[in-house]
Design goal:
Elements: H1 38-65, H2 73-80, H3 90-97, H4 101-108, E1 117-121, E2 124-128, H5 144-181, H6 187-194, H7 203-206, H8 221-233, E3 241-248, E4 253-260
Antiparallel strand pairs: 1-2, 3-4
Helix pairs in contact: 5-6
Length: 261
């Protein structure tokens, strides 16, 4: 994995106010970075405020390291000419604070005191690493489209590596689950081992895990599918699972899906 950009040449902590920014450009709806919905605008304003406080913290840390006089957050925002109650175009905000592509790359590839974010998605926990680009601040020397393309190219190698690691962990977990199922001669126990909490599965997806299970020995194809459905309908599994029907428009019929409670 390539090394993160060096912090030395970036000058992230400079506080001098940049030259006056040009008047805001008129934006076509397809080019603007400000959403039309008021709720979305309020959400973006909160993100913008959070990211501005993050940048101020970095600038203040740099001033302290250099032994420069203390400056408050309000004074720093005043120097930049920023009103915290206004939602700015991302590149317009970047011009106001002198935000460059070099600074953007530095922040996008370093944690800088930020923590990882973990949330649950489709029954599984997903962790977002702290090394992330800012959402509401982009370099003033680029259009938002140019920034998006540069960031995607910059993160591609890191994203590919994370995807390889995630795939490797998933395959290892699948192999371990199949090994455990192969040692079980109780149908209910084998199915309980295959079903993943919070994840909806069909009988067709469950069946391959049970190919080498002694509990389903001698069953193949439709006979194994019917045995799985009968077992899911009996206690104790019937009390441990949720089920629903998912419409399949292409095939014209519905499919039963199951998951552990």
């Amino acid at each position: 994995m390539p090394a993160a950009p060096s912090a030395a040449p970036i000058g992230l902590h400079a506080v001098e106010r940049p030259p006056p920014s040009p008047p805001p450009r008129s934006r076509k709806p397809s080019k603007t970075t400000i959403p039309l919905d008021e709720k979305d605008q309020a959400l973006c304003l909160g993100i913008q405020d959070k990211e501005l406080r993050f940048l101020v913290r970095l600038y203040k840390a740099g001033r302290q390291e250099r032994g420069e006089p203390f400056i408050s957050q309000a004074d720093m925002l005043r120097q930049w000419g920023i009103n915290r109650d206004i939602l700015y175009e991302t590149d317009e905000l970047g011009r106001m604070i002198g935000y460059t592509p070099e600074k953007d790359e530095f922040i996008g590839h370093n944690a800088l005191g930020r923590g990882a974010t973990t949330y649950k998605r489709k029954g599984q926990f997903v962790t977002i690493p702290p090394e992330q680009f800012l959402k509401r601040v982009t370099p003033g020397s680029e259009t938002p489209a140019q920034t998006k393309a540069r960031r995607a190219k910059s993160k591609r190698q890191y994203r590919s590596e994370r995807e390889r690691q995630r795939t490797s962990r998933s395959r290892a977990a699948t192999k371990a689950r199949r090994r455990r199922v192969a040692d079980l001669d109780c149908r209910a126990s084998a199915l309980r081992e295959v079903l993943i909490p919070g994840k909806w599965m069909t009988v067709k997806r469950v069946a391959p895990y049970l190919e080498k299970s002694p509990a389903f020995d001698g069953l193949t194809g439709e006979s194994r599918h019917r045995a799985i459905e009968r077992e899911l309908a009996k206690e104790p599994l019937s009390n441990m699972i949720q089920q629903k029907k998912k419409a399949t428009a292409r095939l014209g019929f519905s499919t039963k899906m199951f998951r552990l409670k």
